[in-house]
Specification:
357 residues; alpha/beta; seven-stranded mixed beta sheet; 9 strands; 15% strand; globular
Length: 357
């Protein structure tokens, strides 16, 4: 090294690396707590010893001991050395056990295990400037993403978003049409189909395995008003749609501007495009926080590589998962939308924009 670096500064960085390692492994540990019933054993129970927790689950006592210590070190449990007891704070229980936190982490663990197994292939693609498409992931990864979507975009949130547009909701009740662009495994698409049985609901995605999965789910649920087709976002068929949705999919597309332009051309004059995207600030500085760190990581490892894999000669720059409201509004205007309204609907991780002609 050409310059002298203070040893304390190096130690601080090494400490940060240790924290990152602990945090990454903590995802798996939190998921283990969900899958083994450990969080449930602790919720509302007050202070418990290792033996008391072990008596409530089928996990071996030594594993319970180490798991409890790891969660205390991570700040999710409190530990009293005098009584050697562990307590699950109410706020942690509300987020991890009763709320969506545990589901989100469990879904992440499923995806991470798949990403770890395929990391060498991904790293080669990343280092050579290539994309890495959804079709190159594993079925475990697809199921993990579906679980993440269900946790972050629950049924009641989707229903509330559509219900916040009375004119659109009325049109769907009367038998209007819906298109969901980049539908993936189709959980939000099927929520709309079930909520509005008279509506004609189309889900499209470039990934044939996802579309096959959606068709099977629709048949199982008896939703004859929902159909799913393999096609690119820029090939959305038909016109006069009352509602077109992008559920956290626009930033995954190789040509987001082209997709919005196609949606604008296919939309009826009184229709709406509902754009669901991660809630983010409008520049990098505004996103230098834990939420931004997570989404930038997801964007680097999953979303943007998928977008790059779909790019053609005329494609614009992929958005990334932290585009921010200002950039989304500018893109909507460029695509031909004259009115953009942010809906006031509480959501753990998303913003919802209503785009109108």
């Amino acid at each position: 090294m050409s310059t002298t670096v203070e040893e304390s500064a190096v130690e601080e960085v090494m400490g940060r690396i240790a924290a990152d390692m602990g945090g990454a492994l903590g995802v798996l540990l939190t998921a283990l707590g969900t899958r083994s019933g450990l969080w449930g054993a602790l919720a509302g129970a007050g202070p418990l010893t290792v033996d008391e927790v072990a008596a409530r689950v089928t996990v071996a006592r030594p594993l319970v001991r180490e798991w409890l210590a790891s969660q205390a070190a991570g700040g999710y449990l409190t530990y009293d050395p005098a009584t050697r007891t562990f307590t699950l704070p109410d706020a942690v229980a509300a987020a991890v056990y009763y709320g969506p936190g545990g589901q989100i982490v469990d879904a992440g663990a499923t995806m991470f295990s798949s990403m770890g197994a395929g990391f060498a292939e991904f790293a080669r693609a990343f280092g050579s400037g290539q994309g890495f498409g959804w079709h190159q992931r594993t079925i475990e990864h697809w199921h993990g993403q579906d679980a993440f979507t269900r946790a972050t975009l629950p049924d009641e949130f989707i229903t509330a978003a559509v219900g916040a547009l009375p004119d659109v909701a009325a049109a769907l009740v009367a038998g209007g049409s819906v298109a969901d662009v980049g539908c993936g495994y189709g959980a939000p698409t099927l929520v709309i189909a079930g909520q509005y049985p008279a509506a004609r609901v189309l889900g499209i995605d470039y990934h044939d395995a996802s579309i096959a999965h959606c068709r099977a789910l629709a048949a199982q649920a008896g939703l004859a008003n929902a159909r799913f087709e393999v096609m690119a976002a820029t090939d959305l068929p038909g016109t006069g749609y009352d509602l077109i949705t992008f559920f956290d999919s626009l930033h995954d597309l190789g040509d987001p501007l082209g997709a919005l332009r196609q949606a604008r051309a296919a939309l009826g004059q009184t229709g709406s495009v509902l754009l669901f995207e991660p809630a983010a600030g409008d520049d990098i500085a505004a996103n230098l926080n834990p939420n931004g760190r997570m989404f930038y990581a997801v964007s680097t490892l999953i979303c943007t590589p998928n977008a790059v894999a779909q790019q053609g000669p005329a494609s614009g720059e992929p958005l990334g998962a932290q585009a921010g409201e200002a950039r989304l509004r500018a893109l909507a205007a460029q695509a031909g939308f004259s009115r953009v309204t942010r809906l006031d609907i509480p959501a753990p991780m998303n913003m919802v924009l209503d785009l109108r002609p």
